[in-house]
Amino acid sequence: MIPGITILPGDCLASMRTLPDCSVDAVVTDPPYGQTSLPWDRFVYGWMAEIGRILKPTGSVWVFGTLRMFTQHWREFEGWTLAQDIVWEKHNGSSLRSDRFRRVHEQAAQFYRGEWGPVYKGMVVTMDAAKRTLSRRTGARHQHLHGAETGTSYASEDGGPRIQRSVIYARSEHGRAVHPTQKPTAIIEPLILNACPPGGVVLDPFAGSGTTGGCAVRLGRRAILCEGNQDYLSVMERRISGIVSETSDLFARAAE
Ligand SMILES: C[S@@+](CC[C@H](N)C(=O)[O-])C[C@H]1O[C@@H](n2cnc3c(N)ncnc32)[C@H](O)[C@@H]1O
Q1: Where is the DNA methylase N-4/N-6 domain (predicted)?
Q2: Does the structure show a pLDDT above 80 at 221?
């Protein structure tokens, strides 16, 4: 048992029905797209509707998915507004087919309902622009960003943190993952900071190895994790403990 983490084993639709209305601050999840031969990769219809009941009016949902998944299953997202999207640029590609580009990225999209105004918007900043900008000191200096959650007292040497770019580079977990589609913490943490207030609750209905949960606790949030596969439930606590015991990617990037 890890403080701040609630694990709900079994089908996520059944698990989510046990959660009270408006009890979750944000959702950060990587659902099955229904595009591979992995046995659990079956699109789950109706999960966004259930989220609509559980999510606070200030909440939003970050969902990983391919453009093919979003267009094929657009009805799942009916009634939600697309706020923005990010691209995860990986160090390697996954396609061996010569009739397509070598795919070295994944995408995530943020959805909300109703008005954008009340939706929680945490500013996400990065310190890793320092190296690139140091060499051109005569260029425009960036304004220091007040109120941003950097998780650090470091400041980049030419003026301060920058707003996180929408294309985020992070090494994939290939070779060290306990789950076949395990996300790196470096790509999950910015989404949690963006959507969930400090101390709030992040829900991941398709938790896999528990990356979202580990990142949430490491960033001072709590998490509710649903997972239907016993193989992944059995490695989840260890993976989460490992993430929590490591320094946040935000600290690591700042210290580089
Ligand atoms: C893409 S993976 C998530 C990987 C995760 N982001 C990570 O970093 O480890 C999706 C997960 O959803 C789980 N899943 C699929 N359908 C489910 C359902 N109906 N209820 C609960 N979990 C489900 C699968 O077993 C799989 O582990």
Answers
A1: 24-236
A2: yes
What are the structural domains, with CATH classification, of the chain? 5-124+164-255 (3.40.50.150)
Q: State the Cα angle at 78 between 70 and 168, rounded to 5°.
A: 40
Our mutation pick for probing the ligand 1 site, out of 227, 234, 239, counting the most ligand atoms within 8 A of Cβ, is 227
In percent, the amount of the chain with pLDDT more than 90 equals: 76
∠ CA 153-157-161 to the nearest 5 degrees? 55
> Distance between CA 123 and CA 160 in Å, rounded?
14
Does position 21 have pLDDT exceeding 50, yes or no? yes
13-22 CB burial, b ≥16 within 10 A, e <16 = bebbeebeee
**Partner residues linked to 82 by β-bridges:** 111
What is the whole-number distance in angstroms between the Cα of residue 160 and the centre of ligand 1? Answer: 38
* Model confidence pLDDT, tens digit, residues 89-110: 998 876 667 888 999 999 999 9
- The token duo for 117 is 């105004």
Phi, psi of 59 (to 5 degrees): -90, 165
* Residue ranges lining ligand 1, Cβ < 6 Å: 11-12, 30, 32, 40, 44, 179, 181-183, 206, 208-209, 211, 226-229, 232
